[in-house]
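Lab notebook, bench 4. The sequencing result for the construct came back, and we need a structural model before the next group meeting so we can plan mutations. Quick request posted to the team channel:

Model the 3D structure of this chain.
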Amino acid sequence: MNSISVCFVCLGNICRSPSAEAVMRHLVERAKLADRIVIDSAGTGDWHIGEALDERAQKAAKKRGYDLSKLRGRQVAAVDFTRFDLFIVMDDANAAALAAVCPTGAPRQDPPADGICLTG
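Done. Here's the predicted structure in token form:
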């Protein structure tokens, strides 16, 4: 079976993108597709690497039935451009930042206006 890998991207990876990761992971597990879809999140900035997620994001997620307590902030790495098939970016500024750090020679498509970037 074919698989696909998806990475949600925001600035610090402590609120928006990990929240999206948790929701997507839940939906994928509910659809029994966890063996076919790899899900992760990352930030374009390096301010929160290794840190727990923002308390407000954790509280809002928990209120909706999602547990973010085990997730930690991480920054997009060069290897991510070969590891992920799809980047879903939270806003235009992060789409531009992601495009700017794409390694030379990595598969790449200019980020479209909707914030979804295909890398393969």
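Residues 111-115 have pLDDT under 50 and may be disordered.
Will bring this to the meeting.
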